[in-house]
Amino acid sequence: MRDAIGKLVDGPKSRTGILYIPSNLMIDSAFPFQAPTQVKITIEGDKLIVTKDETTKK
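Request: output the structure for the sequence above.
Response:
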């Protein structure tokens, strides 16, 4: 599976949001992250680009 429908909701704090990624997408062998992982989120037009945060120390 390479796509799924997730959900964006307001977080418990007024200025945060939570993006839910469906479990069937996270367990797919093509999913590039292991939880917990810090990620970099970039806005490009009407898209969110999610990449591994290389600035965080491991």
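The chain has a mean pLDDT of 89.
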